[in-house]
Specification:
Metal Binding Protein, Guanine Nucleotide Exchange Factor, Chain A, 145 residues, mainly beta, single chain, binds zinc ion, 2 helices, 12% helix
């Protein structure tokens, strides 16, 4: 049976910023990563992505979208300034944009979503981090900036 795209909508608590994630990967096969950096631990963030999928970022209220950079400053972590929710991150790579979503920001948790794996990227340098994101993150087709 051919696999078909499924679409997953998400966003912040107040609705000022959001995303649409499209993937052929079934939720039970998602790579759900608990990054162990301090930012992700403080948000209890869980990340997923699909290099064969698509991600669109929306901001019905553009002034509510904060793009926060820290540490190696290679990606924008997207936070709603009104309600404080972290929805995902986007990197501007050489040829394209790639992103991840925070699965806790999905409007509905997909039934059967894969178990979480803890992971640390502390040993990466900036180029290694960019290369990994280009390979593993989801191509981004729309951003509001
Ligand atoms: Zn919000």
């Amino acid at each position: 049976m051919p696999m078909s795209d499924s679409t997953y909508d998400g966003g912040c608590h107040c609705g000022a910023v959001g995303f649409r994630y499209t993937t052929v990967i079934s939720p039970e096969d998602w790579s759900v990563r608990a990054c162990q950096c301090r930012f992700c631990r403080m948000h209890d963030a869980l990340s997923t992505s699909d290099p064969g999928g698509n991600l669109q970022i929306f901001a019905p209220e553009p002034t509510a979208l904060r793009r926060y950079r820290f540490a190696l400053k290679t990606a924008d972590f997207l936070i709603c300034t009104r309600c404080g929710i972290y929805i995902g991150a986007v990197i501007d790579a050489t040829a394209a944009r790639f992103g991840i979503i925070n699965t806790h920001a999905l409007n509905e948790t997909p039934p059967g979503i894969a178990a979480v794996g803890a992971i640390s990227y502390d040993n990466e340098d900036a180029s290694g981090r960019i290369n990994r994101r280009e390979e593993c993150w989801t191509p981004v087709s729309a951003v509001p900036w």
